What we know:
- 44% of the residues lie in helices and 13% in strands.
- By secondary structure, it is an alpha/beta fold.
- The protein has one domain (9-198, 225-249): NAD(P)-binding Rossmann-like Domain (Rossmann fold, 3-Layer(aba) Sandwich).
- It has a seven-stranded parallel beta sheet with strand order 3-2-1-4-5-6-7, sandwiched between helices.
- Helix 3 runs parallel beside helix 4.
- It is globular and about 50 Å long.
- It binds NADP nicotinamide-adenine-dinucleotide phosphate.
- The site of NADP nicotinamide-adenine-dinucleotide phosphate has 30 residues, from helix 1.
Amino acid sequence: xxAMHPLFDLTGKVAxxxxxxxxxxxxxxxxxxxxxxxxxxxxxxxxxxLAVRDAIVAAGGEAIAVPCNIGRKEELQSLVDxxxxxxxxxxxxxxxxxxxxxxxxxxSVSDDAxxxxxxxxxxxxxxxxxxxxxxxxxxxxxxxxxxxxxAGLRGNPVIGAYGxxxxxxxxxxxxxxxxYGRANVRVNAIAPGIVETDFAxxxxxxxxxxxxxxxxxxxxxxxxxxxxxxxxxxxxxPAGAFVTGQLIVADGGATIADPTVL
Length: 262
Ligand SMILES: NC(=O)c1ccc[n+]([C@@H]2O[C@H](COP(=O)([O-])OP(=O)(O)OC[C@H]3O[C@@H](n4cnc5c(N)ncnc54)[C@H](OP(=O)(O)O)[C@@H]3O)[C@@H](O)[C@H]2O)c1
């Protein structure tokens, strides 16, 4: 077998990845396991998590499955407690799961929907960080990765509230990076462009959007989950040891192209 590259070696590290039964979260869990990490697979549905756990174990990795709805504080605490009970610590936290229940301008978003979006995307990430980061600080070592979005970098008439929650997550990341830097705990965010998952199906299945991406984005295509997992691996591993408080955009160049020219 080929030796692991030391800059991307996660051997023995314990990683919690929320929303890892499908899509980007699943790919992150698989790649972390392949790099030697012990991974916690989590989503609302235990059966889906067990299937991912089994696939990782069958491929020679170490994984457990713990169901958790990120909107519920007690379920987040039980996710952390179960991990600590099993493996004694958390070295890497990936706050990946998020929700986007509404489409339309901000004025059309109900108070209830706003609270749900902010509760599940922003407050739950803050909760989870508070549950995990003090332990990382004690051991003077840890990496937290938050899945933001390019929707948090630009205005959007359709998914504005989601974008606001994703922008706020990057502010949370910067603040936690300042608070925990001296304890050698790093916190970063990733902003994917459109990646082919269930979450983005309404976009990837829309021929007008596909055409616009082909025309405007420098790479001219949608992303794949593993292309986000690669960035997460860098941030979790020694390769990212000097990176903290950052938002890394992985969008095929979609946000840097001038739409009036291309
Ligand atoms: N795909 C894109 O184009 C794109 C672009 C930018 C940013 N992102 C961000 O990337 C992250 C992952 O997105 P994705 O595209 O991989 O989504 P996805 O394929 O729809 O997967 C979402 C995952 O989260 C879980 N999940 C959903 N609601 C949950 C909840 N309330 N509590 C716990 N788990 C929950 C799902 O499993 P269950 O249904 O079993 O709970 C699933 O495992 C999100 O933060 C998203 O905002 C995605």
